[in-house]
Write a structure and sequence with these properties.
Layout: E1 2-7, H1 13-25, E2 30-38, H2 56-94, E3 100-106, H3 109-116, E4 122-126, H4 141-149, E5 153-157, E6 166-170, H5 175-186, E7 194-200, H6 205-220, E8 226-230, H7 234-245, E9 249-253, H8 268-275, E10 280-283
Parallel strand pairs: 1-2, 1-4, 2-3, 4-5, 6-7, 6-9, 7-8, 9-10
Antiparallel strand pairs: 5-10
Helix pairs in contact: 1-2, 3-4, 5-6, 7-8
Amino acid sequence: MTKILGLIDGSPYAQSVCDHIAWIAGKADVTVELLHVIGRRDLASEPVNLSGNIGLGARTALLEELAELDAQKAKVAHKRGRLLLDEAKARLNEAGVANVETKLRNGDLIDTVLEFEANADIIVIGKRGEGADFAKGHLGSNLERVVRSTSKAIVIASRAFKPVAKLLIAYDGGTMAMKTVDQVSRSPILDGLGTKLVMAGADTSENRKKLDDAAIILKAAGYAPEVALVQGAADKVISDMVEKEGFDLLAMGAYSHSRLRSLFIGSTTTEMIRSCKVPVVIFR
């Protein structure tokens, strides 16, 4: 049984998160926990400077009014969060996913995710959050924080789900890349997909051997992978291949010893994930 932790917010990506979870559920037996975290910024009023010429009584009244406003905001945020979770659960139930629980929590997102991920196998999160329409072209800050912090495999959902038939594996010959190939080869969720291994680098015998070694693992698991060694920057090579050859899913390791190591630390992989209009699964 695969345990999925789905992170739900009020963005359009929340529906896509549910659809990606439903796709996984169609490939494996799953239990699902949907989590919505109400952050501190969602609850507190903006700080007010009371150092000016305001009498003590007026200051006290204003502070009381702010406290009442915070309490009202907390009630609204809680009600909204419950509605978001109920809608997400209903969407999954309609898609045939029966075993779904919902959790609503106050606090820091990362602390809460780290608490709930202990019993999870996969985390599913949207590529961008509630500010997506106001920051086009940028990845969500919460996505960056979750990817940095979690120890679990993570599926980064694109804005809209579409059926997954073709998988592209970003490969650099490093330890994490080989672990990614191994996990793909053993995953019932990815079984049966058309698969291609791509390495961005110099066309050397060493790189060719690394690709061949990875292909052997996939072939032993029943895949018939294509391989490609393309010169150029990793983010450009991979995003261009995703678009031109119509891949539906990109798989990669969380860390490596090449330019892909810049995942959410430098710009290379951040740009690759941003520019690819497909979901990304990151293995560990």
